[in-house]
Every structure is written in structure tokens, then in C-alpha cells.
């Protein structure tokens, strides 16, 4: 389990490490959809930037 914001998510697959962004993992969101999260060098998990941009575009923000 990893924490993103205030919620915990189940890790489906460890996707490895990238020197620019840190650690990657595939997780299940609350709707059961697989999404990619990254762990920054500071130790904070967040949704992968591509995920954040895609959601903003879809919502029209």
C-alpha cells in the first residue's frame, strides 16, 4: 500500500526507478482503474504527471 494525498492505494506492480522522477508503481485507484504513481526523491508519492495533465484536459480546466 502507498499513500497519495490522504488516501491509501494498493500497489499492482513495481515499475522500477527513473533517475529524473524517482520510483514508479502501478496502483489501483478507488474505481479499480490501474494508474501510475511516482515517488519523488523527497519520499512523497503522487500521480504521474502525465496522469495529472490528462485529467485536467479531460475536465476542461
The proportion of strand residues reads: over 45%
Give me the side-by-side strand order of the main sheet: 1-2-3-4-5
Reading the helices and strands in chain order gives EEEEEH
Helix segment count?
A: 1
Q: In this structure, how is the largest beta sheet organized?
A: 5 strands, antiparallel
Shape: globular
Quaternary structure annotation: single chain
Low-confidence stretches: 53-61
Look at the helices and sheets and give the structural class.
Answer: alpha+beta
The proportion of residues forming helix, as a percent range, comes to: 10-25%
What's the pLDDT, averaged over the residues? 77
Q: Cα distance, first to last residue?
A: 30 Å
Rg on CA atoms, Å:
12 Å
Structural domain tally: 1
Number of DSSP strands? 5
Spell out the blueprint of helices and strands.
Layout: E1 2-4, E2 7-18, E3 22-28, E4 34-39, E5 45-47, H1 49-59
Antiparallel strand pairs: 1-2, 2-3, 3-4, 4-5
Sum this structure up briefly.
The protein is an alpha+beta fold and 61 residues long. The chain has one helix spanning 49-59, and strands at residues 2-4, 7-18, 22-28, 34-39, 45-47.
Keyword list:
alpha+beta; 5-stranded antiparallel beta sheet
What does this structure look like?
The protein is of the alpha+beta class. It has one domain. Helices cover 18% and strands 51% of the residues. It is built from one helix and five strands. Strands 1-2-3-4-5 form a five-stranded antiparallel beta sheet. β3 and β4 form a beta hairpin. The protein is globular. The termini are far apart.
Amino acid at each position: 500500500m502507498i499513500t497519495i494525498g490522504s488516501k491509501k492505494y494498493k500497489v499492482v506492480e513495481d515499475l522500477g526507478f527513473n533517475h529524473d522522477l524517482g520510483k514508479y508503481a502501478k496502483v489501483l485507484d478507488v474505481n479499480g482503474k490501474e494508474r501510475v504513481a511516482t515517488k519523488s526523491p523527497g519520499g512523497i508519492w503522487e500521480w504521474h504527471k502525465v496522469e495529472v495533465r490528462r485529467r485536467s484536459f479531460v475536465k476542461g480546466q
